[in-house]
Amino acid sequence: MAVLVIGGAGYIGSHMVKRLLEEGEQVVVLDNLLTGFSDAILGGEVVVGDFASEDLLRSIFKKHRIDAVMHFASFIQVGDSVVSPAKYYINNVANTLRLLSTMIECSVKNFVFSSSAAVYGNAGSDPIREDQACAPINPYGRTKRMVEEALQDLSAAHGLRFFSLRYFNAAGADPQARIGERHNPETHLIPLVLQAASGRRDAITVFGRDHPTSDGTCIRDYVHVDDLCEAHLLALRALRKGHKGGFFNLGNSQGFSVSEVIAVARQVTGKQIRVKEALRRAGDPPVLVADVGEMRRELGWLPAKADLAMIIQDAWRWQKKYDAY
User: Directed axis angle between helix 139-158 and helix 95-105, to 10°?
Assistant: First the structure.
């Protein structure tokens, strides 16, 4: 049997392909390379195409005896989702429903979904547990929540087994710097800080120092991409054993402020890292930190690379290689 990794040329998807190959899994990657990179795929069979194509999916399911699908092919930029919401509803919701209906048609019943802490919106609690009410505040978060609700209905009607894994802030890179984070445009804090350290950008902008936190800057929960992939692997194994699945947070259960991230990045890189000040952004929650107790209890998962300096060190090693491209 084989695992289909949709979006396997992207940041998290490529690290997942690497981890599956390490475990001896048969891997098929489906990616249209719109935002992914072919050189990020370290092995497996690669199909260049769109996961919205039901005929393509049917042919893959038939040819490769797929027993599980991991889906990483969502559009992820919050700001862009506000400007162009239709693009997000089409790709993240409509196309995912086509994928799920084709899976059910072809009797592929195991599904691991890349969800997001964005489903919680301005949660108002710290740390956030899975039983927190979901109230997303932007189209991106709403698309993730819509898929989650559809998964519940498809599970009840057709026996689809799923894990919906709600990431907080994915960060870091392959320790050997073979692959890493390279979005265009980049919107995530740690790579932006490291781009300022490397000279790829002039400075890092800090949006507000008047948040109700210890140093006035936003606090976020950063989880190493390799730890995320380990959680996906545990979810895959559990589904194959008949686990009912469900919704689970993935984070470190520890928050770091923007100022703390910059300070650690200065230590790791030995660079000054220039900072620009700006007003806080509307809708930015002061604190977003995960409670991952449920994932620990159900699957025994705990982050192995929770140290912020380790996360930034791996990301910096990749950034220096990326700058040489």
Answer: 20
